[in-house]
Amino acid sequence: SAAKTGDGPGSVWKVIEDSSAPRGPKVLAQTSAEGPKAMFNLCVANETNFSDVDLSVALKPREGEIDQGGGLVWRYKDANNYYIARMNPLEDNFRVYKVVAGKRSQLGSAEVEAPAGKWHTLRIIHKGDHIQCSLNGKLHLEVKDDTFKNAGKIGLWTKADAVTSFDDLAAAVPAK
Hints:
Largest sheet: 7 strands, antiparallel
Oligomer: single chain
Radius of gyration: 14 Å
Mean pLDDT: 97
Low-confidence stretches: none
Strand content: over 45%
Helix content: under 10%
Strand order of the largest sheet: 1-4-13-6-7-8-9
Distance between the termini: 31 Å
Shape: globular
Order of helices and strands: EEEEEEEEEEEEEE
C-alpha cells in the first residue's frame, strides 16, 4: 500500500513496462514528479513482518530535479517510524537512516557512483542492532542501531519528486 512521510502530492505507485528490467518487463514505479522536498514516498508490503532480515531490490532512478534514486525500508511500524537505506545519483551517495516520529536521522554515508537511467541493486542485512548496506554487490555501510528492535514491514522509498522503478524485491531471514 502507498503511504508517505510528510504532506503534499506524490506517492503514486504504478506497475509500468520496462524491457530493461532484471526480472521481466513489468516493474513497480513511483511515478509522481510532484512531491515536495520534505516528503518521502513509501510503498509497503502489508503482509510482511521481519525483525532480522536479508532484503534486496533492483532500482532504476529515472527522473527528479529535487531528488533522484530511492531505496528500501524495513522494521516499518508506520509512515513515521522505520529504517531506510537509499542511493541518490544526484548526490553520488548511499546512506542509511532511521525515521523516528517523522524525523530522518543519518546513521551512515558513503560516496558512490550510481548513475541515473541504469539498474542498481541494494541489499540490506539487519541482525539484532547490526546493519550492513550493500550497493551493486559491494558493502559500503556498516552501522549499529537499536531504535527499532521489533519486527516490522518492508517496503520501497523515494523522496520528493524522484521517479524511480523497482524490480526483484526479495526478503528472507538472514543466514546465521
